Amino acid sequence: MEIIQAASAEERLKILADGAKYDVSCSSSNGARRAEKGELGQCHIAGLCHSFTSDGRCVSLIKLLMTNKCEFDCLYCINRRSNDVPRASLTPREICELVSGFYRRNYIEGLFLSSAVETSPDATMQKLTETLVMLRTEYKFRAYVHVKAIPGASRHLIDLAAEYADRMSVNIELPSENSLTLLAPQKKKEMITAPMLRIAKIIYDGRDAPRANRPLPAGQTTQMIIGASPDSDGRIIRLSEALYRNFRLKRVYYSAYAPVNGDGKLPALPADPRRENRLYQADWLLRFYGFEAEELLPPERNLPLDIDPKSDWALRNIDKFPVEVNSASYETLLRTPGIGAQNAYRITQARKYSALGFGALKKMRVCLTKAAHFITANGEFLGVRSGDPNEIRAALTKGSLVAAKSDRQTYAQISIFDL
Fold first, then answer.
1. 380 by DSSP, 3-state: which?
2. What distance separates the 2 farthest-apart alpha carbons in the chain?
3. CATH 3.20.20.70 in the chain, residue ranges
4. I need a labelling partner for 355 at 20 to 30 A (CA). Which of 23, 150, 181, 310 fits?
5. 112 phi/psi in degrees, rounded to 5
6. How far apart are CA 348 and CA 418, in angstroms?
7. How far apart are alpha carbons 150 and 123 in whole angstroms?
8. For 361-405, how does the pLDDT look when each residue is reduced to its tens digit (9 = 90+)?
9. E strand or H helix that includes residue 47
10. What CATH number should be reported for the domain whose range is 2-290?
11. Which SS3 state, helix, strand or coil, does residue 219 take?
12. pLDDT (tens digit, 9 = 90+) per residue, 38-62?
């Protein structure tokens, strides 16, 4: 292990910022906090995700590891103990100086702070909380702060961090206890679930407090690596559903596995990024569309890569379709491919005044290349006439609309994504 002892702050910052890039966080603050005279920064409900890298990751936060010197030897991690990589650390004072300096230059709008486990979980969490306290009290920093809770850290340290952070997260890393034992042998399930439960209780107990005083207004999140272990999408979706219900999570982030270490227990090739995308779509259906994991796919099955999860569900329940947009309930429209939450609401409002045809739906920017196979509009149907799921699937895969033989114009594909 190569240790950089006397490196400049700039060199250490480069190492530690690069080490933090594997953590995913593109989320809003959900807090409203104004700076008073002598304080630095403000926190807006509107959020922080204004700038993105070419791979879609948010760069409006400064994302840092406090240290990448780790006692753990997780097989998938670039900072694992046995890796021969440059190591560096920043002190709480150095982090506060960097964050306040970058904020004043308008480089950032907040801080995402994590760390490898140096010495012990409690020793590392102690330094993270020291940084938060210093940043908030001495540097009067009022902007958004997301801090990682260290698995295995003591309850009183979790409580202290929650007093000063906007969001906390504990990475669950792998979808099953067996995978965790195989690929991250120093981590135990209880080390992860204990701080998650504590954070959930803090959020629940403070739910009625005024927004300015509410603990962790942006909630808690977690992250799973997808494709490093043989866990199926069905198992992953069921785990996510349980996390949302039992731990009051704001988000579960899915990160496609990228091979950074050579090990026989790990896949040699990166995970298909389409799988990560499909899991996010399924996750959205759980959170906002009224679906349950049992409906989306069996436990041992993976989500199809050729079509989105809602279309896959609809094809397996083709007997429920087509639905008439002028009479279907809002909940039914939500479950119809090509109609998102916003358009489902628009349809229910617009049809009060006149019957809607496909022309009106096009103006609403409903994705007709999907929806036309599952709806009728004022009695008209423009999808696959046979109703054969295989034929509809082929049409969906091609992204083409098979129009009925009529005098009406065939509607062009709308170039927006809508579930």
1. strand
2. 77
3. 2-290
4. 310
5. -115, 110
6. 17
7. 10
8. 999 999 999 999 999 999 999 999 999 999 999 999 886 444 333
9. none
10. 3.20.20.70
11. coil
12. 665 555 443 343 444 445 545 578 8
